[in-house]
């Protein structure tokens, strides 16, 4: 079966395959490692994603099977997520701070067959509850540090799975594209877990069509451009990171930048100076506190200048433009927001003082909550789904 690489692909794997075919040498991901930003092209993304998907196929993973990922947001998470979808499976992201008991219930209720974990710490949680997860057949570990002498027939390293996938691909060269072509628009793709996981429910499933519908809504709302830069800040269990982050970036050919580690958010923001920022209220609270604390610790003249500029910008008019040009532009650059065109969060609203502060700096933080904004509105079904997903 030939893969349709038309202008309007109707599944996430077809969308990715279309971009790979047309823009193979273009950079689409970056990850900072030991102080250096390493780039990944579309072609490299395709090779790594395909190795994961074919590795899953080689161990008997079938269309409709569920695979989960328990890890911080990182490029390997993207390769696995897209590999699961390309293999026809359903991908679920579990919050990396999920406790063992809740994790076991999540794995059991989702009928998870393959689980990807980040490291030995996450592995320990899984091993303590796996006897209650009858569907679980394989555990794949991203980082094998500290596990050199560990041996378990259910467990293997990520590199081993990818190598098996590459071998399987060489002996079954048409299987990947044939499988992608067979995936239907209405086929389940993403399992959204309540509260990032837990025992409350089995979660909500997005089909490929659902995901593309939400991407189209975000594209109209945010108008992303080719070459836009974003920083991947949230766990992948958040829809704002999964659908309106990774998938929207793939659709728009925006570059996703991954943190060196979760503690370097502010440093990496300053370095990347993203043009798009999709995050939660906690990040904005940190940015507001950093600006406020910085002003408090500045010289008397600097403190007065900052406060006067904020007041002038909030009043509006010509003085607002002058305040932003002479004072607040430098504040934005220091916070890592110097190039920011679009900032967005889910349904959780920001405190009014942070909204006023952001507007004074020339930033409007939009809520992607399904309600009418700039002439676009989601229908009732998707609005309810958004509210349910963001009610976490």
Round the mean pLDDT to the nearest integer and report it: 91
Give the quaternary arrangement of the chains. single chain
- Low-confidence spans: pLDDT under 50, at least 5 residues? 196-201, 371-375
Rg over alpha carbons: 22 Å
Q: Strand order, biggest sheet?
A: 7-6-5-3-4-8-9
Q: Per the principal axes of the C-alpha atoms, what is the gross shape? A: globular
Largest sheet: 7 strands, mixed
At CATH level 3, the topology of the largest domain is Rossmann fold
Distance between the termini: 41 Å
Number of domains: 2
- Counting DSSP E segments of at least 2 residues, the number of strands comes to 14
CATH class of the largest domain reads Alpha Beta
**Strand portion, in percent?**
15-25%
CATH homologous superfamily identity of the largest domain: ANL, N-terminal domain
The CATH architecture designation of the largest domain is 3-Layer(aba) Sandwich
Task: Report the total helices.
Answer: 15
Structure, briefly:
With 392 residues, the chain is of the alpha/beta class. The protein has 15 helices and 14 strands. The longest helix has 18 residues, at 318-335.
Overview features:
392 residues, single chain, alpha/beta, Rossmann fold
Walk me through this protein's architecture.
This protein is α/β, with parallel strands linked by helices and 392 residues long. The chain has 2 domains: 246 residues, ANL, N-terminal domain (Rossmann fold, 3-Layer(aba) Sandwich), CATH 3.40.50; 111 residues, no CATH class. The chain is 48% helix and 16% strand. The chain contains 15 helices and 14 strands. The strands form 3 sheets. Strands 7-6-5-3-4-8-9 form a 7-stranded mixed beta sheet, sandwiched between helices. The longest helix is centred in the last third of the chain and has 18 residues. The radius of gyration is 22 Å and the shape is globular. About 3% of the residues have low confidence.
